[in-house]
Amino acid sequence: MMKKLLVGLTFILSTVSSSFAGGGGDILRKSLMINNLEYQYSDTRTISWDTYAYIGYDLNKVYIYSAGEKTDGISSMESENELVYSRAIAPNWDIQFGIAYDKTQEEDNTWAVVALSGLAPYFFETRLALLVDDNGNLGLRVDLEYEALLTQKLILTPSLEISAYTKDDLSMELGRGLSNLTMGARLRYEFTREFAPYVGVEWSENFGNTDSISPLSDTYVVVGLRIWF
Questions:
Q1: Average pLDDT in the chain
Q2: pLDDT attached to residue 1
Q3: What DSSP state is assigned to residue 24?
Q4: Of 25, 119, 156, 188, which residue is least crowded by CB atoms under 10 Å?
Q5: Domain boundary assignment for the chain
């Protein structure tokens, strides 16, 4: 697995280097977006994050994604991380490919990933990721988000996350079929575009084999910050 990762990473970096070399008059852009950095008011003391960073040009970029949570009550942490090359294929749409790395307190798993990211009709921010690991387990992760401007500074953001897999993976607490559904809504106030505190509510539930392996059905209030650099 490590050899495959190194080969894949080398290919991504060489592809990106070639693309960047052909940037011409295009401006090199970079950004760090902390979409959510929040505290969950649930049965456990949980801090979660959802963030990404990129560097590149209009057509070619490299993205790093990271989302996860740390729960103090049971001293556990889990995260989903990706390193992908992103190529614009249409206005507001990119195709991405690279490596995904999932980590729990005790175990980890590495995937190859291909994703489609962009702005769907009616301004839904959309990301569809297809993953495959060494054991032939296929995963699908869907992220949808919509921003409703209540005023120029007050913004309501409903979100939906869905995950599904083709095989059971007891070590990663994943089950075959529909795995998890998470729905939320966050209301933020933008003091500036770069800094916005928010409050919200989120519901998360596991289904099917995943729920048998790791039962979850919870609704909780969240308080956090959205920061953009």
A1: 91
A2: 45
A3: T
A4: 25
A5: 2-21+34-228
DSSP letters spanning 179-227: EEEEEEEEEEE-SBTTEEEEEEEEEEEE-HHHHHHS--EEEEEEEEEEE
- Give CATH for domain 2-21+34-228: 2.40.160.40
What does the alpha-carbon distance between residue 75 and residue 45 come to, in Å, rounded to a whole number?
A: 10
pLDDT band at 24 (very low <50, low <70, confident <90, very high): low
The whole-angstrom separation of Cα 227 and Cα 211 is 33
What's the pLDDT at 18?
55
Distance CA 123, CA 145 (A): 9
Give pLDDT, residue 2: 39
* Other beta carbons within 10 Å of 186: 23
**218: which strand partners?**
204
3-class SS string, 37-90: EEEEECCCEEEEEEEEEEEECCCEEEEEEEEEEEECCCCEEEEEEEEEEEEEEE
The answer to whether residues 139 and 163 touch, using CB atoms and an 8 Å cutoff, is yes
- Residues in a beta bridge with 3: none
Phi, psi of 143 (to 5 degrees): -125, 125
Give 64-108 pLDDT, tens digit per residue: 999 999 987 666 899 999 999 999 999 999 999 999 999 998 899
69 to 32, 83, 128, 191, 198: CA distances (angstroms):
19, 19, 21, 26, 18
CA distance 100 to 30: 21
